[in-house]
Structures are given as C-alpha cells and as structure tokens.
Design brief:
Elements lengths: L1 E9 L2 E4 L9 E2 L2 E2 L2 E2 L4 H11 L4 E6 H4 L6 H8 L5 E4 L5 H10 L3 E5 L6 H11 L4 E8 L2 E2 L6 E2 L4 E2 L8 H11 L3 E6 L11 H10 L4 E5 L5 H9 L4 E4 L1 H4 L5 H7 L9
Parallel strand pairs: 1-6, 1-15, 6-7, 7-8, 8-9, 9-13, 13-14, 14-15
Antiparallel strand pairs: 1-2, 2-3, 4-5, 9-10, 11-12
Helix pairs in contact: 5-6, 6-7
Length: 263
Amino acid sequence: MRIIGVVDLVDGQAVHARAGMRGSYAPVPQAGGAAIDGDATALARVYVEQLGVSELYVADLDAITKEAPAHAVIHALASLGAPLWLDAGVSSVQLAHDARAAGATFVIVGLETLASFDALDDICAAVGGSRVAFSLDVRDGKPITLAAALSPRQGVPYHAAQQMPVEDIARRAADAGIAALAVIDLVRVGMGGGPALETIERVRTAAPDLILVAGGGVRGPDDLARLADSGCDGALVATALQNGRLTARDVGAARALHRRVSR
C-alpha cells in the first residue's frame, strides 16, 4: 500500500485540515517531534526523510477556492524529489498545464471544483490520462459538486452529479481516461473517526482497474489494513503521521499490504 503524506496549504502555510471547515484551519505546529510552525517544506521533509513516505499529496486550498495559487511553495515541495499529487482547483486544460509546470506528477481534478465531466475528458486528452487523478469528493458519503454548468455534449446538468451514486461518478471518471481515483470524505479529514470503508468498497467495485486511494479518518496501522481489505492501493494521511500514530516502521510495513478485493 502507498502511504501518501498530505500537505494542505493556506496562504503558503501547511495547515491542519479538520472536517472541511476551511475557515478554522490552523498552521501545523509540529510533526515527528519536530517544530513545523506551518512550514510546508519542513513538514514534507519530515514525511519523506524521517517517516519514509515516498509520495506527497498537496492541496492548495487557496487555488481550490479561486485565490492565487502557491506555485513557489509547490515548486519547493516538488524539488524534494517525491512524486507529487497536486490538487490546485484544476478545472480546465490551461490549469492542468499550470499544475504540471508547477511540478505535479499527478494533476488532481476534483469533483468539488469541476464544471463539467466534458472538461475532465478534455484535460485527460490534453495532458495524458496517465498523469490525471480524479478526486471523488464526498461529505459523509454524498458527492460534493459545483451547482453549475450544463454538460453541452451530453445535455445533462452537471449539478445532477450531486444525486448520482458514487459508483456512477467513478465509472464516468474512469471513462475519461484517468489513471487514479481518490475518495476523500471531508467530514472525516483530521477527525480520527476511521475511513469511509463502505464508500470505498462501492467505488472499487465500480472502477476495478484504477489506482484507488482514500483520504480522511486514518488513525493508525489497523485502518491501513482495513483500507487494503476494502480494495485501496493507497492512503492519503496527514494527522496520523504528524501526531506519531503512524511511525516510520508502520509506513514501511504498509508497503507489504495489498488490496484484497479481486478485480
């Protein structure tokens, strides 16, 4: 299993995300016993150099909410050499190219900020689906979308995705040509309540061939084993790495975990 260290950015600082309540996020004070004080690069170094995490997931929350992107910080994080999954509110081909130029290995296109599924098709065609991950953003299992644009080539209001089962959303994203899918339940992020296993199992059944990672709720090694049992290839983790519930030994042991749900 891939353990992917999460860095949430606000105003260029690493913040502790909790339950999607972005207005209350505070800078990360420490990780791995080291003082961080919101320094995103210092946090990433703890993940990579101290805890043995081999991939990073960066959520540029300013870019997601249509503020100026933190490209300088993202460049610094990419320079550490770990593959970078970047969610910077990408909703167009140009923004996808910008994310790649900033250092993204995987460009994340989030359900929360996407204007239409047709845009996802265009992004995959332009930058290559092997470089695109789709974030299936949910709140307590219910999809989170922009209540916005019509999908002109299909004639279906995109905001209808709020009523679509997560399985149908996963299939539609897979049809666009993405390489990976992340299921992120915002109400579980930073709350230590355990991952959304039922949602993950439903998505895995619908999209058996994609790389599947999950974010929100991981408390320790037992949750990683449960995620593997539910069909996950990886976990997005922040709090459990920062507070020591997942150690370098746990990260190493997790690499031996393999999803146990057959394709």
